[in-house]
Amino acid sequence: MYKSEKKTITYVLTLYLSSTLLLIATLFTSYYFYKKEQLTHDEKEVLKEYSIDIEDRLASLHEDNNERYEYPRLDNFNSAIYDIDKNLIFSTLNMQIDNINKEFFFKGSNSYYVSSIKPYYLGAAYTVIEKKTEPVNILNDLITLAIIVIIITVITSLFLVKLVLKPIRDNLHLLDNFIKDTTHELNTPITTILANIETLDAQNCNEKTMRKLQRIKVASATISNLYQDLVYLLLNHKVSSQNEELNLSEILNQRVQYFMQMANVKNVKLHVDIKDDVYLTADRQKIERLIDNILSNAIKYTDKNTTINITLTPSTLSISDKGKGMSEDEISKIFERYKRFDKIQGGFGIGYSIIKSIIDEYNIKIDIQSQINEGTKVTLKW
Amino acid sequence: MVKTALLILILSSFLNASLFEEECLYCHTNDFKFNMMMKKYTTKYSSEKRIKKAIFEYLKNPTKDKSVLPLGYINRFGIKDETFLDDKTLRDMIDIYYKQFNLKSKIY
Questions:
Q1: How confident is the model at residue A4 (pLDDT cuts 50, 70, 90)?
Q2: Is the CB of residue A110 less than 8 Å from the CB of residue A133?
């Protein structure tokens, strides 16, 4: 899976999931309160029935010609009676009620229902019914349901994102396969060209032929460089790094020599300031790729008749050109694979992608400072 | 001092009780009727304060509207005469009546 693909999937998933979660949360909250309201209503209806029951019992008690009146006590609820001035007459409630102005309320784990009665049997103008509240047990069910819905949503959204990204993915695979095939086919001719140019006897050539040969050599070096990049990209994840202590000063000098002819074509001077015996533990091929890519980019994008400064210190390598430069936006996107800002210049847009993978592997920091129409300075720090 | 106050209180309650017997129970000898009247007042006025007030107002100025008795009963026996007791004595008598016959204290 490509990095950009991962990024897209993450974005889409986050967006899709957050909106779905918001919707689920809204629906479930509404449902929870609706259900709670419904249960409250049911509870109130039950208490209302108890209230009628107690009123009937009070009426019949009132009509009795007894010396004393036994207050009705029932198993499923408790009750109290108050006179018209809200003074307590009698109570079997578990809790003391201070305020009987509300018709229905909860206190502790009980629910209460207050109703007024008339005539005032035994002086009772208000009855208060107390009943243990039935707990609302829908929250656990709702949470389970929410988890199931979220899992289904995640699976669906993953499937959808993959479906949407499929055409882009196919195109990228096509491009990768094309590069793979091209690389394979380039190997033999490049080797042949480079080997044969080296064996040509320069003394037997006139100046004009010599210049032509130089150009062929530069062109071949460019293709070779590109070939090396492509090979690196294709084999990067398959070959393990052969780390060793490298003399970076020597390698840099060699690479500068290698690119000298390419620079000469544009009449670009390579000004080197390389400290001796700078060592770094890394894979030789990877460090060469790193240097080659930064250097070839500098040569490619610097203006004609300018100077490229190459400076190596024990902990930094900086290469600066005087070319067209890059904007902040371009710098921020420079490490994306196949990203090219200049359509006139050749290339696949893989150079900085390779640089990024190497510096990440060796914890090398990169600093790119660039000004439009002034040039770019790339500094590596380790 | 306390003893004196207590003595006065006991004496006055005895005096009031005997006054109640003299002024009220002399005619209303039947407890049953007194109970019935208290039930009727309780059913109509509910609280102690309102019951006492209603009894006082009725005894001071008895009318058909203020009576708690059924209309047929009033038509047959008529409205009782206005009380000759002074306000304080009347209130004391009502207090004793309520204390002895109220329904609230009979609930258990």
A1: low
A2: yes
Q: How far is CA A88 from CA A251, A313, B48, in A?
A: 101, 95, 11
Q: Smallest Cα–Cα separation from A79: which of A59, A58, A61, A99?
A: A58
pLDDT at A314: 92
pLDDT at B11: 47
Look at chain A and count its residues: 382
Summarize pLDDT for A75-86 with one digit per residue, the tens.
Answer: 889 999 999 999
**Does residue A377 belong to any structural domain of this protein?**
yes
Angle at B45 between CA B44 and CA B50, to 5 degrees: 160
Write the CB contacts of A230 (distance below 8 Å, at least 6 apart in sequence).
A179, A182, A183, A186, A348, A350
Q: Which of A341, A353, A345, A340 is CA-nearest to residue A289?
A: A353
pLDDT tens digit sequence for A233-286: 776 655 667 888 999 999 999 899 888 888 888 889 999 999 999 999 998 888
With a cut of 80, say whether residue A202 has pLDDT above it: no
List Cα–Cα distances, A20 to A5, A14, A144, A314, in angstroms: 22, 10, 16, 54
Using a CB–CB cutoff of 8 Å, tell me whether B103 touches chain A.
Answer: yes
Find residues 12-51 of chain B whose CB sits inside 8 Å of chain A: 32, 35, 39, 42-50
Q: Is B53 in CB contact (< 8 Å) with chain A?
A: no
Question: B108 and A120 in contact by Cβ < 8 A?
Answer: no
Question: Same structural domain for residues A229 and A372?
Answer: yes
Domain end position, chosen among A106, A132, A158: A132
The domain in which residue A225 lies consists of 200-381
Of A114, A132, A150, the last residue of a domain is A132
Quote the percentage of chain A above a pLDDT of 90.
30
Is the per-residue pLDDT at A222 higher than 80? no
Q: Where are the domains of chain B?
A: 30-106
Helical residues (DSSP H) of A266-374, grouped into ranges:
284-301, 328-333, 351-361
CA distance B78 to chain A (A): 25
Q: Pick from A122, A179, A194, A199: which is nearest to A347 by CA?
A: A179
Collapsed DSSP state (helix, strand, coil) of residue B64: coil
Q: Give how far Cα A356 sits from Cα of A288, A290, B21, B64, Å.
A: 14, 9, 114, 108
Nearest to B47 among A66, A69, A87 (CB): A87
- Is residue A34 included in any domain, yes or no? yes
A378 vs A16, residue with greater confidence: A378
Between A23 and A340, where is the model more confident? A23
Per DSSP, the three-state class of A185 is: helix
Question: Does residue A5 or residue A230 have the better pLDDT?
Answer: A230
Do A298 and A376 form a contact (C-beta atoms < 8 A)? yes
Of A69, A70, A87, Cβ closest to residue B103? A69
Q: Say if residue A121 is in the same domain as residue A208.
A: no
Residue-wise pLDDT for A292-311, tens only, equals 989 988 998 899 899 999 99
